[in-house]
Amino acid sequence: MKRSRKKRLVDRRRSLEELERFRWPDPPAETTYLIATVHALRRRPIGELAVEDLRLMIGQNEGLPSLLPLALEILRDDPMAEGHMHEGDLLSAVVTRSPEVWEEWPELRAELVGILSELGELPSFFLPEVRSTARELLSPGPGTGTGTATATG
């Protein structure tokens, strides 16, 4: 089922737990850094999340309805925004979400396609699977609109 095409307005003062109306239990005492971090970030107001926080949460498919619009806002201004991994790591995290994500939120897909189109070609330091997925997003397909540039390399 596709979501509304209206612009998503998210209260940036609220955490994912507040927005989703679901509080996770505390993580086990002997948990991994990743799990502890995801739990902590779910409790932080989303407007306070840094690029690295967004990269990590999006990479874990957490809070996508609230966090993808924020990530796309950053990427419109700086497509190569980076967290702690490498230049463009936020874009990599966003691009590599499953096709079902983009089918569910076509308005977010359209924003991503616009960003990718402006970039033209992804730099060679992006992993081949990221570059391949970007090419797929830019390719016209049934119900996807049209791609206007290539992200080849």
Overall description:
The chain has 153 residues and is mainly α. It has one domain (16-138). 50% of the residues lie in helices and 0% in strands. The chain has eight helices and no strands. Helix 3 packs across helix 4 (64-77), helix 3 packs parallel to helix 5 and helix 4 (64-77) runs parallel beside helix 7. The longest helix has 14 residues, at 64-77. The protein starts with 15 loop residues before the first helix and ends in a 15-residue tail after the last helix. Residues 1-6 and 143-153 have low confidence and may be disordered.
Supply database-style keywords.
single chain; 153 residues; mainly alpha; 50% helix; globular; disordered N terminus
Write the layout of secondary structure elements.
Elements (H helix, E strand, L loop, with lengths): L15 H5 L12 H10 L8 H9 L4 H14 L11 H7 L3 H6 L1 H14 L8 H11 L15
Helix pairs in contact: 3-4, 3-5, 4-7
The unreliable regions are 1-6, 143-153
Please give the alpha-carbon distance between the first and last residues. 34 Å
Q: Output the helix-strand order.
A: HHHHHHHH
Count of structural domains: 1
Q: Helix amount, in percent?
A: 40-55%
Any idea what the radius of gyration is? 16 Å
Largest sheet: none
The percentage of residues in β strands lies in under 5%
Please tell me the overall pLDDT.
85
- SS elements, strand count: 0
Structural class comes to mainly alpha
DSSP helix count? Answer: 8
Shape: globular
